[in-house]
Amino acid sequence: MKIALIGLGSVGRGVAEMVAKKDLGITITAVADSTSVCMDADGIDIHTLLARKKKSGRCGDEGVSVTELLKKADYDALVEVSPTNALTGEPSIGYIKTALNRKKHVVTSNKGPICLAGKELRALAQKKGVALRYEATVAGAIPVMHLLEHGLAGNEILAIYGILNGTCNYILTRMADEGLTYDQALLEARELGYAEADPTYDVQGIDAAIKLVILANTIWGNGATLDDVERTGIDLLTADALRLAEEDGCTIRLIAEAIPRKHILRVSPRIIPKNHPLVVEGTLNALTLETDMAKEITLIGRGAGSVETASAIIGDLLYIRNHYDKRA
Amino acid sequence: MKIALIGLGSVGRGVAEMVAKKDLGITITAVADSTSVCMDADGIDIHTLLARKKKSGRCGDEGVSVTELLKKADYDALVEVSPTNALTGEPSIGYIKTALNRKKHVVTSNKGPICLAGKELRALAQKKGVALRYEATVAGAIPVMHLLEHGLAGNEILAIYGILNGTCNYILTRMADEGLTYDQALLEARELGYAEADPTYDVQGIDAAIKLVILANTIWGNGATLDDVERTGIDLLTADALRLAEEDGCTIRLIAEAIPRKHILRVSPRIIPKNHPLVVEGTLNALTLETDMAKEITLIGRGAGSVETASAIIGDLLYIRNHYDKRA
Question: Is the reported ipTM for this assembly greater than 0.90?
Answer without folding.
Answer: yes
